[in-house]
Amino acid sequence: MNQYYEYGSSGQKDSLPGHDVKMIGRKTLEITGVKHVESFDNEEFLLETSMGFLAIRGSNLKMKNLNVESGMVAIEGKIFDLVYLDQQQGGEKTKGFFSKLFK
Fold this sequence. Notes:
Pfam families: YabP. By secondary structure, this protein is mainly beta. Helix content is about 15%, strand content about 50%.
């Protein structure tokens, strides 16, 4: 999926693909609006969504389903937290998180 979307004040937010996160019993996540899977292992997933980067942490995580065309990802395992990494707000925190991921 090679589509990237610009965020701006020109009313483009209406044209963004839908982004939803559905958690079922803290064991399954269904996420739409995924543009790219940056990295993943059994403890952490980093996804680029149409609403920003989303980090998912847990244990025994595995990708149950990936549909690149529709931008849908399903993840199974025990989910501890979901965090959106917002560069405007996070600044140093975001940089620290990324540096830990890519060591």
